[in-house]
Amino acid sequence: MSESGLRVRLLSYLELNPTIIACWDSLGERALEPNAFLSPCFVMPALRHLCSETDVQKTVLLFVDRPTSEGFDIVGAGIFFQLRAGLRLPFPCLKSFLSVHSYLSGFLLDRDHGEVAVRAIFDFLCNSRPRWHGVDFPCMYSDGTQAELVFRVAREFGCTWHELTRSTRAVFVPAEGGDTYLQANLSARSFKKLRQARARLERKGKVEWRALFGTEVMEANVESFLDLEHMGWKGKEGVSLRSSPSHVAFFQEMVDGFRRTNRLFFTELMVDGTVIASTSNLVSGGVGFAFKIGWHPDYADVSPGRLNELAFVQEVNGPCRDLSYIDSGAEEGSFIEQIWSGRRTLTYGTFSLSTTGEVALQFYDRLRSCKAGLEKIWERTQHLLSSKVT
To answer: Which residue, among 288, 305, 287, has the nearest Cα to 296 in the 3D structure?
Structure first.
């Protein structure tokens, strides 16, 4: 029990019970920084279907409990893999949970008890026995209130952040949607091309668009999405969900968990009643998280995936309009950046948790710096040699 009266627990997957899972799920809905990819509705199906037995055994769930008159609330959480050594840290360390289908890692912190919760977490991580020497976060927001809090508290505990990469991700605020938003963010040429594509699609048949929320998403919509996501290059390269029975099982179970709690929405673009483009999206704590998209390659000439996104921005309504924002989950350079103008900043790096960890990470940083310097020298040398030849 910490000085703040909070209790930190480290549990294995097998130690979870319905009460803990319910408290964990509740935390996600009142989180300072919502993250659907850390929800039990996502993590548990991922551990069951996407992770090896060895990875499940290495998984630990860190919970910060606050006593209440009825028992306890969970006010902080982190899900980690325990590693004997990491790529940059040749000592025992932790890596924040990130499955093959996750787009965001980090902590879940109660918005009313965030500071005491994150202090309890770092106090535990820095003084645990046996000792971990670092904690790796592959994809975490580096902007916003929670990031500011986490980095400040980490510094106070002497935990230095060693960043590997930084990137931005497109986000969309539904309340800003509509034609005015599109005209402000799309170039006149791009807007004209998309309108022409829509006109060509309308010549093929009756075009309809819809958004389905929560329990409106039926099994037929899920199967249609899986079929569309499997078409084209994803299916050919074996990276679609439908390419693996275990990934299909994960998606179906994950969708069912979010659907039953009305924290899910699909969008569909149809021609004569046939779905030709679909998106699956998750909701947590009033924030949306785009998951995956699918579209029919027979309609590639009219860019059905883009038309689906365009219709969503134009016609966004219902529960979606009340979302604070929607995280696209897309990499830099994705087409969604042409439509969604908002941006969040992501970071990938490691917190040192001990003097040993700090020394090792500093050594790795110096090696990276030397490697980058040598690569620049090599590039300049090659350029000079080629100039002399010509």
So the answer is: 305
Provide the pLDDT for residue 388. 60
Q: Where are the beta strands (DSSP E) in the chain?
A: 7-12, 59-68, 71-83, 93-96, 108-109, 134-141, 161-172, 207-213, 264-271, 274-284, 287-295, 326-327, 342-352
Look at the pTM and tell me if it is higher than 0.90: yes
Q: With 0-12 CB in 10 A as exposed, 13-18 as middle and 19+ as buried, what is 19?
A: exposed
CA angle 177, 183, 189 (to 5 degrees): 140
Phi, psi torsion values for 245, nearest 5 degrees: -55, -35
Contact yes or no for 277/296 (Cβ under 8 A): yes
Cα–Cα dist 249/253, whole Å: 6
Count how many residues are written for the chain: 390
Under a CB-based contact definition with an 8 Å cutoff, are residues 288 and 282 in contact? Answer: yes
Strands 274-284 and 264-271: antiparallel
- Short-list 217, 198, 232, CA closest to 310: 198
Task: Give me the mean pLDDT over the 366-386 stretch.
Answer: 71
Q: State the pairing for strand pair 342-352/274-284.
A: unpaired
